[in-house]
UniProtKB/TrEMBL annotation:
NCBIfam families: alt_nitrog_alph, ANFD, N2-ase-Ialpha. The keyword Membrane does not apply. GO terms for molecular function: ATP binding; iron-sulfur cluster binding; metal ion binding; nitrogenase activity. This is Nitrogenase protein alpha chain. Its EC number is 1.18.6.1. Belongs to the NifD/NifK/NifE/NifN family. Its cofactor is [8Fe-7S] cluster. It catalyses: N2 + 8 reduced [2Fe-2S]-[ferredoxin] + 16 ATP + 16 H2O = H2 + 8 oxidized [2Fe-2S]-[ferredoxin] + 2 NH4(+) + 16 ADP + 16 phosphate + 6 H(+).
Length: 521
């Protein structure tokens, strides 16, 4: 078994079985780290809690809802606005967060009165909002507050409102994934089947496990609508509370993030006979395969093929341009659960990037199985890493870029390694054909940005380049420009200061560059 014990974790020998180096010819029986277990004492985990998994990941993207946390204000503050779950109602769910602000006195005497008072205040402050989700935290769970009873009491007094209760305290699982499961099951137990939706198409789906990060969902919805498919509900990006109550009338559950939302799909299949179909919107080939599968299910493959042909012809040349410049670059793929395997092979096949490490903080064994099987030989796979292990991996592997969340990403920046925010994106959306090219552009900009090279200079002793365009010059030398333009002192002087490179995405435009330089002068 090719286990790997980090030097920084030698005092925690149990950590050895949570990291594996993928060897030549090894299968998953000998190259799989332990996963989805309680964090080992002494290892300062960066995991999210079960409450975070329920509220922050699944619940908050619902748009027409007051999201109320029954607990200390820090719990709701920590899960507020850290992802770009955009919506079409002016992002109400991002602008506002609500908490009962439990204090020490409430721990001693109970906080049910405080909870009811806050619920009524919230509805009074936003009378247009008639729906609410209540999230339990560790504090309110430990003292035994009956939030279900309070919710029923308010709904009896205010018949026009509806409240969903999610009992998912932070200690409800080894990681945030425990919260995913709890809110999935709570929603189908409490709310699914309580509204009858209007059916307007012969092809009706629930789009599940999609959270509309920077508009990802809108890209996919557009493709489905072009195929004549009605999207009954989206669980839960830009999702409407009442639309999600009618999930039981769909013909098919189309599942994107299997780690966060497979639970409700499985229950919908058992209780209502709705089949589940897993898709992947990341990557050109994966996107094409996904639309083909949905088209085959409904017998409308020709509509899917029309979209695939059009989008591939438009965006494949641009993706190839970036692949030529990203091939053999190294990445540490350290995102959430599903992107671990959604991206592991496709960024290598379609962008030429080598995956030298994969990790997950909350993924299950199945996620690591898929990720390890799809990444390159020699890759380091880590379950639930701490900050020191991440730093050691960066020093050892020397990646060109890292795809991860904001917290480990900011640590990477401190050691001069660029990162892309795999959770909330830099310049999304990243799904679909155009989105995947946008992702490649962000990777290219991250790796080739002169800022990172400048950050390696020690101003106390290193010679600082006085030519502001030194990096731009090197990039220009790689493209087919005439000697007259490449050697132009005007271009050398101003190319780093002005945006003269926009025309270089697919080919070079000497006239454009000359014109822009003359205008700058």
């Amino acid at each position: 078994m090719p286990y790997h014990l980090f030097k920084c974790s030698e005092s925690i020998p149990e950590r050895e079985k949570h990291a594996v180096i993928k060897g030549e010819g090894e299968d998953l029986t000998s190259a799989l780290p332990l996963g989805y277990l309680n964090t080992i004492p002494g290892s300062i985990s960066e995991r999210g809690c079960a409450y975070c998994g329920a509220k922050h990941v699944i619940g908050t993207p619902m748009k027409d809802v007051i999201h109320m946390s029954h607990g200390p204000v820090g719990c709701t503050y920590d899960t507020w606005q850290t992802k770009r779950y955009i919506s079409d109602n002016d992002n109400f769910q991002l602008k506002y967060t609500f908490a009962t602000d439990m204090k020490e006195q409430h721990i001693v005497f109970g906080a049910e009165k405080q909870l009811k008072k806050n619920i009524l205040e919230a509805f009074a402050a936003f009378p247009e909002m008639k729906r609410m989700t209540l999230y339990q935290t560790c504090a309110s769970a430990l003292i035994g507050d009956d939030i279900n009873a309070i919710a029923d009491e308010v709904m009896e007094e205010m018949p026009d409102v509806d409240i969903f209760v999610c009992n998912s305290p932070g200690f409800g699982g080894p990681s945030q994934s425990g919260g995913h499961h709890k809110i999935n099951i709570a929603w189908i137990n409490q709310k699914v089947g309580t509204v009858e939706p209007e059916i307007t198409s012969d092809y009706v789906i629930n789009y599940v496990g999609e959270y509309n990060i920077q508009g990802d969902q809108e890209v996919m919805q557009d493709f489905f609508k072009q195929m004549g498919i009605q999207i009954l509900s989206t669980f839960t990006g830009n999702g409407s509370y009442d639309e999600l109550r009618g999930m039981h009338r769909a013909h098919l559950n189309v599942l994107e993030c299997a780690r966060s939302a497979e639970y409700i799909c499985n229950e919908l299949r058992v209780r209502y006979g709705i089949p589940r179909l897993d898709i992947d919107g990341f990557g050109h080939e994966a996107m094409a395969a996904s639309l083909r599968k949905v088209g085959m299910f409904f017998g409308i493959e020709d509509r899917a093929e029309a979209i695939i042909e059009r989008e591939s012809a438009r965006w494949k040349p641009e993706l190839d341009w970036y692949k030529a410049r990203l091939t053999n670059k190294k990445v540490c793929l350290w995102p959430g659960g599903s992107k671990l395997w959604h991206w592991a092979n496709v960024i290598h096949e379609e962008m030429g990037i080598d995956v030298v490490s994969v990790y997950t903080k909350f993924g299950h064994q199945q996620d690591m199985e898929k990720g390890v099987s799809r990444c390159e030989i020699g890759a380091l796979a880590i379950d639930d890493p701490n900050e020191l292990e991440g730093m050691e991996a960066i020093e050892t592997l020397e990646p060109d870029i890292i795809f991860t969340g904001k917290r480990p990403g900011e640590v990477a920046k401190k050691v001069r390694v660029p990162y892309l925010n795999a959770h909330a994106y830099h310049n999304g959306p990243w799904k679909g054909w155009e989105g995947w090219v946008r992702f490649a552009r962000d990777i290219y900009n991250g790796i080739y940005s002169p800022i990172h090279k400048l950050s390696l200079l020690d101003i106390s002793k290193d010679e600082i380049p006085t030519n502001v365009g030194f990096e731009t010059q090197r990039m220009l030398s790689d493209v087919n420009l005439s000697d007259e333009i490449k050697n132009s002192p005007t271009l050398r002087e101003y190319s780093g200061k002005y945006d003269c490179l926009k025309g270089l995405r697919e080919k070079t435009y000497p006239e454009y560059l000359t014109k822009k330089v003359s205008e700058a002068v």
